[in-house]
Amino acid sequence: MDRLNAMLVFTRIVELGGFAKAADSLKMPRASVTVLIKQLGSHLGVQLLHRTTRQVSPTLDGAAYYQRCVRLLCDLEESEGLFRGAQPKGTLRVEMPSGVGRLVVFPALSEFTDRYPQIELEIGLSDRPVDLIREGIDCVIRGGLTLDDSLVARPLVQMEQITCASPGYLAKHGVPRSLDDLDGHRMVEYFSSASGKRYGLEFLVGDQVRLINLPKQVSVNSAQGYIAACVAGYGLVQSPRYHLAQQLRDGHLQEVLSDCSAPRLALTVLYPPHRQLSPRLRVFVDWLVELCHRPSSGFSGEVNASPRC
Known about the structure:
The chain is an alpha+beta fold. The chain has helices at residues 3-16, 19-26, 30-44, 60-84, 98-115, 132-135, 167-173, 223-231, 241-250, 279-292, and strands at 49-51, 56-58, 90-96, 119-125, 139-143, 152-159, 161-165, 189-191, 198-199, 201-205, 208-212, 219-220, 237-240, 254-256, 265-271. It has a 5-stranded mixed beta sheet, covered by helices on one side. Strands 13-7-14 form a 3-stranded antiparallel beta sheet. A 3-stranded mixed beta sheet has the order 9-8-12, with helices on one face.
C-alpha cells in the first residue's frame, strides 16, 4: 500500500463527503479508492469512516487521523517546493462573490495564471455559505464581519460604500441632501438567504453608526438583484463603489448623500488553518492582497476616510 497516496485519498473523502466525489476529484477509479481505504483501515487497526447510503463522515479516530494527515501532506508539499525550487502547482478551489469575481478578479486573472501556470483554478461565484472542509474548498472571499472563528482570516481591503438611486426614482421622490431628507423615501432591502438577516441603510454620524430602515416594496437576497432593483427605481441602496461603478458611468444610477458616508465594508479571505502552508494558496492570497490595493481595483482602499454627517 502506498501510504501517502492512501492518506491523500482519505483526506479527500473526508473533505468531499464521499468515495465517488473523491475518486472523480483525484481522477482515480472508484474501485481503487475503496481498496486503498480498506487497506489503510486494516493497517491502522481502526475504523476511519462512517458510511451510509447518503454520506460518508469520519469516526472520532478518523477525524483525529484526518488532522494529522493534512498537516503531513502540507508539510510534504511545502518541503518539496522549497528544495526543488519548483513553482506552486495543483488545483486551487476558491469561492468568491460574483461581483468581486466578475469586476475585480477576472479582469486581472491572466496575470496570476501567467505567473503560476501550473496552478489550476476552480472558482465558484456565489454568496452562499460554504463548508470549506466538507466541500474541499481552499479559501473563500467574503465581505462583512468574519463569523467563523475556526478559520484563518486575512484582510484584503476596506471597501468604500456609497448610497445610490436611479435617476427616475430621484425625479419622482426628490434628491435627499441630508439624512433628514429621507422622510418619504424608500429603499431596496437586502436579506441574507443563509441567516435571514435583513439590512437597511447605515451612515456614520459622528463616531456612531446610525441604522435607517425606510419603507420598501422589494427585498432581494443577491447582490446583482439588489442593484437591478435599484436601477428599476425601487429605492435607495448602499453597496461598495466598485460594484456600482458601471451603472454610475452609464447614468443608470446616481450617487446621493455623498456628504454622509456609510461604514466601510471589510473584504476578507478565509481559509482553514491547515491550508496556510499550501504554496499555491499562499501565492494566491498574496496576489489578492496586491490586487485589491491597486487604484485600478475600484476599491478605493487607500483613500482617506469619507466625510461623516
